Amino acid sequence: MTVSPLLLALHSCTERFGVAVQDPETDQGRPRVMGFDDGRGLSNSLIERVSTLLPSGRWGELKGLAVATGPGGFTGTRLSVVMARTLSQQLGCPLLGVSSFALMAERLAPDEQPFWITQPLPRRGVVAGRYRVGAAVVEELEAPHLLEADRIVSPAIEAAVDVDADVEALLGRLRQALQQGEPLPWQPVLPIYPTSPVGPV
């Protein structure tokens, strides 16, 4: 019998913070998911919320981490990415970063492909990413970015985040990546904030 590794996924690209854990010591390793509507208060509650599902004393046992990289609010997205990068670096643990648009692509995929996911930003324009969904594979053909003011993309569907579902999907992607032996270094995992350049954190 194969023992499931201890894995953690974080999603803070919206006002709702999602945490998913695969823990071999509970529920036969089946994922546990919780969402917290902390909004901007997440800066004060992040560690507490993660500890609700996985006590900090066990973080050293982690065999893999995953984080949603955005697009999303600058502070919220950056918080979970910084936490995930720090844990990955300190623990020597693989880290997978996936855009929140790529996570929702499988749920939202239309019949016509490839397709765009778009999200209007008040007074700033439209953020869009381009995707193709195949058999158990989501390809991000263009990462989320701010479109030029006069550019129209098609076919397009509007972003619809479901944090609880998406953070569980993120955990599944991490599990699959580890099974396939992907190296998953922490250095390339950066937050996507399309209206402001983001350098290394």
From TrEMBL:
Q: Cite the Gcp-like domain residue spans from the record.
A: 60-115
Picking any one GO biological process from the record gives: tRNA threonylcarbamoyladenosine modification
Q: Which InterPro entries match?
A: ATPase_NBD, Gcp-like_dom, T6A_TsaB
Pfam families tied to this protein: TsaD
User: Which NCBIfam families does the record match to this protein?
Assistant: T6A_YeaZ
The protein in question is named Gcp-like domain-containing protein
At the highest ranks, the source species' classification is: Bacteria, Bacillati, Cyanobacteriota, Cyanophyceae, Synechococcales
